Amino acid sequence: MNRFFAPFVCAVVSGLLAAGMPATLAQESDFPPAENETDRYQLEEVFTGLNNPAGLALRPPSGDDVADEFFFAESGAGRVLRFSVDSPTENHEVLNELTTHRLGAEDPIEVGPWALGFLTPSKLVVMGGVQVDGEEQVGVYFLPENAKVLSANQVDHSVGPLTTGDTVEQLGFQAVAVGETSAYFASGSENATGQIYSSPLEANQLDSFRPLLKEQITEWPAGLCLSPVNSAGSQYLVGSYLGELQEARDSRLVFFDPFSGSVLMQLNSGLFDLVGLAYSPSGRLYAIDFAWQKPEAGGVYRLDDARWEGRPACRAVKIAKVVRPTSLAFASDGTMYVTAFGSSDKPKQGKIVKITGEF
């Protein structure tokens, strides 16, 4: 089955550049209709009753023969927790006392820490809820071997600030992607400018903090991940532009040059609010649709490569119905885990689900 993977992206981007063509955007209606393969995947609830979980991140192996361990943010509670796949009924607090705020004018949601990543097995990156000298920063926390719970002010080091004209109260749907030599951070809001930042890694620390995009954009960037390295040694930074949080399938899939920040290609995704992306171990690209205004229509999708009206396009294939998903990550065995806020009719409806099938 065709799918978005590094060689495909490389071929399309190279073709556009060789032809001297700018990255173009099709009209909103010019994307293939979505497909549904939910009957081919199995869902299992791992945790329920969570306060707006987000930021799922797989801890890198430390060299010991231990089971996969995931970290996630209980965003509405201002804390970070962890769980092991071999003890999926237990979770343990890692970090607390992170700040929270309300996001959205209608039916606001309480959010704080939003995105997590790892520089090393013992250095956790936290985006959202980290206040340093009154500024919103990206914080890095050193995880002690005795598993002692940290407080927000015990930051190892930080970079920032994240706010660029917008206030902390407007920030949401942030994203982190950590590569071999740099880390990337997407920050923005519906009503203000957005930006993607990069920070070189020096001696397992975030070094400088600079805007990756040449100028601030009116888009809301989200859902960052790095593509697999292709046979030519190239890699792309992949993200999304959310569009408006309305009843329109206006989210776009965007491929960036991770060094210059240039937009190499952008495609209509056919999704409402594409807030998270991840490549499976086999190289397929998966996305989650928060669908703010139509939560029952959201879920988890595979993005397949396609051509539409003679142009490059992607086809969204739904693999799971999940209400208001916020992050996704793969275990080493290829199993997918997804955090979701769940229904908004009652508090603490958040959950983590495990999805199995052919990825």
UniProtKB/TrEMBL annotation:
UniProt signal peptide: 1-26
Record carries keyword Signal: yes
Protein name in UniProt: SMP-30/Gluconolaconase/LRE-like region
SUPFAM superfamilies: NHL repeat
Keywords: Signal
The keyword Signal is assigned to this record: yes
